[in-house]
Amino acid sequence: MALPSWIADHINLYRTDPEKAHFFDCSVGGGKPMTPTLLLTTQGRKSGRDISTPLIYGRHGPAYVVIASKGGAPDHPDWYKNLVANPVCHIQVSKNGYRAQARTATRDERPQLWAQLQEIYPPYDEYQRNAQGREIPVVVLEPVAAG
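RE: above sequence
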């Protein structure tokens, strides 16, 4: 399945000019003009290929936090399914790259992290209402030392 052109363009921009790609204009989708994004690279659970996805993020201590919203679809995004199958991933935040370990936020930490990300990107609450009963996962990406 081909990526929408705006996602493919964002990935390409992240690869050629990561500082410019770091802040993305999300105002068309109801977000803010300068929204922080990272580039998440997971290993495809079926293909074994590296697959990159630009995502809005927040911070939680040294970790990065993303939301597996898929725009409020009733099914989880493929990148989240890939992380469930293999939580080792790579994240690029502006010019900085990190190997990371992904985990789904605990029930105790989810409300605070959700509120933080909803502040960054207000449409997340609407996405949750539209998700047909699916609880949208909050994902914590914890950088790990290269080894």
